[in-house]
Amino acid sequence: MARAPSGVKQYPYSAKKEKLLARLRKIEGQARGIQRMIEEDRYCVDIAEQLTALTAAADEVALLVLKDHIEGCVTDAIKEQRGEPAIKELMEVIRKAIRR
Asked: pTM, whole model, 2 decimals?
């Protein structure tokens, strides 16, 4: 991993940090909107649809981060002969995502 001048580890997603943060702010806004819908006693199906959209948006952020992890961290680990534990860790994350 590259290190920033401050000595902080830089991960592959760091290059897209602003894009990821913008998506997360949008998700945060969606969550507040859903809270308002519940406070206003809105129709159940409308709330469920918005929750589905929020989940899809969060999944997309996770996929972007995982893609960078595979292309950066896992690839580097394989090149450095540390691939097995990196792949095992990645598979655990994927298993958790699939189970829900």
From this structure: 0.82
